[in-house]
Amino acid sequence: MNISFFMSYALVEMIALDFREGDLVTRISHQHDVVFKIISIHDNIAMLKGVDLRLYADSILSDLIKASIDIDSDQQILEKNLREVQMDRSQYFYLPGKILHIDGDSDYLKRCMKFYHEMNVKANGLTINEIDMPYKIRDLLEEFRPDIVVITGHDAYLKKNRGDYQNSLNFIETVKEARKYEKSQDKLIVIAGACQSNYEELIKAGANFASSPKRINIHALDPAVLATSLALSDKNKSIDLLKILEKTKYGKDGMGGIITNGTMYVGYPR
After folding, report:
1. Which of 19, 131, 242, 265 is the most exposed place for a label (fewest CB within 10 A)?
2. At 265, which helix (H) or strand (E)?
3. CB atoms within 10 A of CB 267
């Protein structure tokens, strides 16, 4: 037997033993552009999920290196959004819009729900597989009667498959079902899509906001950031579209939409 074969095999075994489910890693071949969490390992192949980006991938173990991530990244996004909330609470009271957030990923949903809570916005959240969303959205809208609905999870632009998408069609059908429930884009604001989603078709289906104009990845909190901004915007005033999009991780490249009114009632006296 070739000694180099045994050495190579031993190296692979050492690499495999060095990684565990839950480890944070980056890919050497992609210049460490995205931090992932290992969700499973099979036959020297790791299945990966983006920590901050709504992205799935796989990789051979030899292409991975352990990484760390700024655990305060969500906190920084929260603090930035809190600073931008301007309300005169000395004389007025405020009733923010209500949010229904359905998400294909439970981890991302938990982070979004924490964000809503810290921003003092009422939100209901459910984890639903993307393929089931079109069949469940109508009942959920009737149950919760939100002002804003977020439809998100995981997606991918599959260039190798002639431009197919992993879940865009599921999101599109879900938006269409939501519009059967409420046709007016002022009475129900729809935010739809995930990483690399078919932006144009989501907008055509009736979404007020969608990803991804440039077919790039979006941050896990981007849909929640948009929803919160709309929930805290005056119902009688049009939003500053460019300003709201700039609150997201990649701005107009990652998310786009139409000018609409906010959903918050302003009352007087306090």
Report:
1. 242
2. strand 265-267
3. 10
